[in-house]
Design a protein that fits this description.
By secondary structure, this protein is of the alpha+beta class. It has one domain: NADH Oxidase (3-Layer(aba) Sandwich), CATH 3.40.109. The strands form two sheets. The chain has a four-stranded antiparallel β-sheet. Helix 2 runs antiparallel to helix 6. The protein is globular and about 55 Å long. The chain starts with about 25 loop residues before the first helix and ends with a helix. Bound molecules: 3-iodo-tyrosine. 3-iodo-tyrosine binds next to helix 3. The site of 3-iodo-tyrosine has 9 residues, from helix 3.
């Protein structure tokens, strides 16, 4: 395993000092086999809304977060914070606040068109996964960098960067045998308050993580075929 050998410090304004990058080239037959296996494993991922309360190995979740934090980001600013919430009392508070907002959403704030889009997913304002799942990863985006003296510096492509990191997080969790859900209560301001995050951070998603409940069901969804999502020229 490649343990980090240097601590990150801000590089703003540093000169370009490239270093060699010479990864061993993977033989094509091995690439093909790995790609096909990965494709099949990723196709087995499902968003889960009914979680077992069984604990998960915390280190698996930490390793998945470490994978997510390898994501590319605008100007390599790594504008993310992942809060791993295991404390049941904090999960209860997040659930109560999320359900309060979701109640208003499902009661009309979303509007008929949005509700119709959600109907096949069977979602509603009751969010048991927030307390059943043994861990929540609350992802925050850092809208700007905040120095210890209160100075600010703009971050670039924050939505894109954090979105890529969350994609890598979901892949890492799934490939490590854990189920997850991307939950985006709206508005999400309460998360900043409950988790006491600094003013430069804005909640991006709440990701319950765990094992599916023994009686877990998922919507009967069909993915678009490769032909429907890819154009080759
Ligand atoms: N945030 C709400 C509603 C919701 C919105 C979308 I778009 C979804 O794909 C699923 C749910 C909720 O969590 O229920």
């Amino acid at each position: 395993m490649n343990a980090p050998t240097r601590n990150w410090i801000p590089t703003h304004g540093d000169p370009y000092r490239p270093v060699p990058y010479r990864p061993a080239r993977m033989p094509a037959d091995e690439s093909l086999a790995r790609a096909a296996e990965l494709r099949e494993r990723m196709d087995g991922r499902r968003t889960v809304r009914q979680f077992s309360t069984d604990p998960v190995p915390a280190q698996v979740v930490r390793d998945a977060i470490a994978c997510a934090a390898t994501a590319p980001s605008g100007a390599h600013q790594q504008p993310w914070t992942f809060v791993l919430v295991k404390d049941p009392e904090v999960r209860r508070r997040i659930r109560a606040a999320a359900e309060e907002e979701e109640h208003v959403s499902y009661d009309g704030r979303l509007g008929e068109e949005w509700l119709a889009a959600l109907r096949p997913l069977g979602t509603d304002e009751v969010k048991p996964h927030l307390t059943d799942a043994p861990a929540l990863i609350v992802v925050f985006q850092q809208r700007h960098w905040l120095g210890e003296d209160g100075s600010k510096r703009k971050h670039y492509y924050v939505d894109e960067s954090v979105g890529i990191a969350v994609g890598m997080l979901l892949s890492a969790l799934h490939l490590s045998g854990l189920a997850a859900l991307v939950h985006t209560p709206s508005p999400m301001r309460f998360l900043q308050e409950v988790l006491e995050r600094p003013a430069n951070e804005k909640a991006f998603a709440v990701i319950p993580v765990g094992y599916p409940a023994p009686d877990c069901k998922v919507p009967d969804l069909v993915r678009k075929s490769l032909d429907q999502v890819m154009v080759e020229v």
